[in-house]
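2024-03-11 09:14:02 INFO worker-7 job=invfold-0412 stage=load source=structure_tokens
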């Protein structure tokens, strides 16, 4: 089965950009259409297609909403009160380009757009469950909780590092894969395995990020493990992801390929 590609995702996002002509919308579009690998919507769409054998409108709406949430989180992460970054995806961050106030508004608008977008879907039982999961994973029990843990972390051990990575980074990957499976009709036992796949992938993704940005000042897996140990940990998580994919009755080669590409990112 042919996989959904980045060009398809970008077209969905382009169609979702509001037509309102104001500076906040310009800042929103600047960040949303500013590039990126689109891993999260690709995981959602391809999981839905693998499980349901087709690409439903509901999966497409969830994918757009997910990328809006992800982009808003990047805009806010880059602000001076958070990570204070000047460059994102090879260009000026939103607040550097449009100012802090309009970057804040653009992030708010993207979260609102995510809600507007899911309301354009067809509200079956499966779709409602997927929408609930998406906003739980991006809210105070998910990504925002992870941000709080990261900001408040002191001396860390592996358990704490995993918890921060799981929520700060992993929960949006959980939304990606689980929402795709949910809206396509996977059963509860399968959804639990999809969630385990996403959890392990999300933690692994953060380990690789930490290796790629070893000089950063914030908390890192490198605070508790050597570079060699981090690589071994990431390799083990990647292998677990692929084994779990093989345990399900679907063609999940695309997840295994993304897991391999993540591990192969240059240190």
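2024-03-11 09:14:09 INFO worker-7 stage=emit residues=267
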């Amino acid at each position: 089965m042919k996989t959904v590609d980045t060009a398809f995702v970008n077209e969905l996002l382009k169609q979702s950009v509001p037509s309102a002509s104001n500076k906040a919308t310009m800042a929103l579009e600047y960040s949303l259409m500013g590039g990126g690998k689109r891993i999260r919507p690709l995981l959602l769409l391809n999981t839905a297609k693998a499980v349901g054998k087709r690409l439903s409108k509901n999966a497409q709406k969830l994918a757009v909403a997910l990328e809006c949430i992800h982009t808003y989180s990047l805009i806010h992460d880059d602000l001076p009160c958070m990570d204070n970054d000047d460059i994102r995806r090879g260009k000026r961050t939103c607040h550097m380009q449009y100012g802090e106030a309009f970057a804040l508004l653009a992030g708010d608008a993207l979260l609102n757009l995510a809600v507007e977008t899911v309301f354009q879907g067809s509200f079956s039982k499966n779709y409602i469950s997927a929408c609930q999961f998406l906003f739980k994973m991006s809210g105070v029990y998910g990504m925002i909780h992870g941000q709080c843990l990261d900001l408040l972390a002191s001396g860390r051990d592996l358990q704490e590092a995993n918890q921060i990575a799981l929520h700060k980074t992993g929960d949006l990957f959980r939304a990606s894969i689980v929402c795709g499976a949910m809206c396509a009709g996977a059963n509860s036992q399968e959804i639990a395995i999809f969630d385990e796949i996403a959890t392990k992938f999300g933690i692994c993704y953060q380990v690789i990020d930490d290796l790629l940005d070893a000089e950063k000042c914030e908390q890192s897996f490198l605070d508790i493990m050597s570079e060699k140990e981090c690589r071994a940990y990431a390799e083990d998580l990647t292998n677990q992801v692929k084994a779990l994919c093989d345990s399900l009755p679907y063609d999940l080669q695309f997840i295994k390929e993304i897991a391999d590409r993540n591990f192969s990112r240059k240190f």
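2024-03-11 09:14:09 INFO worker-7 stage=report msg="DSSP finds twelve helices and two strands in the chain."
2024-03-11 09:14:10 INFO worker-7 job finished
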